[in-house]
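Batch job 17 of 40 flagged for manual review because the log was empty.
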Amino acid sequence: MQHRIRAIWILAILACGFTVISFNLIQIQLVQHDKYWRMAVKNHLHPETIAPRRGTIFDSDGYIMAQTQQVFDVCVDGKLLDHPSDRLAQFAQILQVPVTQLTAAFDPRNRHGYLAKNVDDSVVKQLKALKLNSLIIEPHDLRSYPNTELAAHILGYVDPSTGHGLAGMEKEMDKSLTGVPGERWVELDARNREIAGYQTRETPAINGYNVTLTVKMAIQHVVEDQLDQIVETYQPASAYIVLMDPHTGEILAMGSRPTFDPNNRQTFQRDALPNRCITDMVEPGSIFKIITLAAALNERAINLETPIFCENGSFYYGGKYLKDDEPNGTLPAMEVLAQSSNIGFAKIALTYLHEDKLYQYAKAFGIGQRTNLLDGQGESTGLLRSVDKWSALSITRIPMGQEVAATPLQMATAMSVIANGGRLMVPQLAKQVTDETGRVVKVYQPRIVRQVISPDAARDVARALQQVTIDGTAKNIHIDGHSFAGKTGTAQKFVDGAYSHTKFVSSFIGFMPAEDPAFVALVMVDEPHTAKYYGAEVSAPVFANIAKQVAQIMDIAPDQAVTPAPTLTANNPRTL
């Protein structure tokens, strides 16, 4: 009997135990399944981020300007490397570096010593052919700029640690270029090594979009070459060139000096990194006169034949004398521009515009306002003081480009108003965004800010600007077969509270052809260090050099007869 009771108790206890165990199993497998599944995954599976490939930046003709390439770092396990001296000599030959460089860096105790970084696939293939288990090849992506310094300020550069854009269009278009990271889960063994046969789910990365710019690389090459020649000839503090399509606002080329190579961060110098075409504001001098003339013509206060008395070269107003380089009496308004009479423009503003109108038109042309071309990258607003802050002299100085400051891009945009029939366009660098298959994701259409002046007023200013190149301050430059229009500028720099007589900004701004222009170009040289400093001597010839080459690149048809070349003869000594 006692044995039977004992057996019953044992069975009861076992039943209770199994009940408890079953209850816990139900809890684990049904009620708290997700919790314990996550714990198991955490212990055995490891998530890895799959980096997306950053998009490529193209010029308007489809040439690569910035791209992401797979490159490799080459390392060696010092403990596994046999015959180090012989092997290092082999490595040096393949990597094309001095063997002494590798020998000095090699440490037989280092299990992960770097031999080279960022080598390409052809080098890796040669190294793998050695079949050494001591070599460690590590792939990674590298952002590269195949044209080195070309368009560096337009393209900008990326953060090498994050891959995100830090400047230029790399920053402006970062969201489009970056893409979306993917994720891969791998199972690890007891030593935290991946078990290849047990790979689980994977969410692929979405590579970044490609961006096509408005820039034309062939024209950008011309601009870079001319900037280098400016630096070599004049050793300026800085130099700027901007080319744009006046009808769309598209930037065809843009550059400044000093510059940098975005491939090599070790060589970056702080003063070379900013895009000075948008960050630097300078007093434009006489190229600002296009705005004054346009304002007076648009108000119908004058026409191109209106006589303006230029005071024979000396004008006393507001307690100060204003001088012209060449004394003139009465000139028609067109010739006032052609001869770049400071006094003539002071008289136009005093007599026909007055302070409020001049201020309103300068503002309407975009002076004193950011273009937002590269948002948040240090663009200057320029300087256009409100009328209540003008002095008695301001109405005579602002019309000729003093007491006002603009960026090179602002002035190029202002000239585009004249060239396109009176419209202020939004300058733009992005043309379109496409995916990997070439599907167009977004197209950037031209945008009009406002109608600044009438088409008739714009046409009259253009006529006057063409006269500048025929018998005015720019008559020294010629572009055979092509008409063009433009304005010279020689601005005294404001230094230590006064206008300097030794430091100048030399400029030329123009467009070609004179009717229905294909492009507007600004050339500006800050402090040329030679005896030459007038815009007609320094910047106008650069404009002519650029225009001749751009005419070929853009296939601009000649609209004038070509001047025959002079015959070289002993009786014609001027041609010898």
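Reviewer: the log was empty due to a logging misconfiguration, but the result itself is present. Residues 2-31 form the longest helix (30 residues). Unflagging and moving on to job 18.
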